[in-house]
Write a structure and sequence with these properties.
Elements lengths: L4 H8 L33 H22 L5 H21 L4 H23 L3 H21 L11
Length: 155
């Protein structure tokens, strides 16, 4: 199976094996920075909105503990499992236009990388850094994707 540039770049920038979530077809995905479509946000579908809201809610439930550096390894691993459930659902069910999908993968790659770090990094500080990557991606997402009713994470 031919891998896209996205998958190859993802693999090259990580020290962990390809995640189950990455079995999604990445053909025709570009690389680069997030951008709007003709100054408009990208359309979303119900599976994407449900999955991203689930990721947001999971992170929101632990946000105070993450910022206060109070989570332990098992709690990060548990949070990671929740994030994996939602990202797997997005990859399985989300059907966006190829251009919107390519943009979405820029956000999801940050979530996936942060999630893997949150799950398996040796130090608590590195696991926390992974959580911060996910939080940052959740702050980017509504700037580029039309998600009615999106609730930003509280600071």
């Amino acid at each position: 199976m031919k891998k896209s540039l996205f998958v190859l770049a993802f693999m090259a920038t990580t020290s962990f094996p390809l995640l189950a979530e990455e079995k999604h077809d990445h053909n025709a995905h570009g690389s680069g920075a997030l951008q709007l479509e003709s100054e408009k946000k990208w359309e979303t579908d119900a599976p994407l909105r449900k999955g991203m809201a689930g990721i947001r809610d999971a992170m929101a439930s632990r946000l105070g503990e993450i910022h206060a550096s109070r989570l332990k390894k098992p709690q990060y691993a548990e949070l990671s499992e929740k994030i994996s459930t939602h990202t797997n659902s997005i990859f399985k069910n989300c059907k966006l236009s190829p251009k919107a999908d390519a943009q979405l993968h820029l956000v999801l790659s940050q979530i996936l990388g942060g999630n893997q770090q949150m799950k398996s990094a040796e130090s608590i500080q590195d696991r926390r850094a992974g959580a911060i990557k996910i939080i940052d991606a959740l702050q980017l997402y509504p700037k580029y994707f039309d998600h009615p009713g999106w609730q930003p994470l509280a600071d």
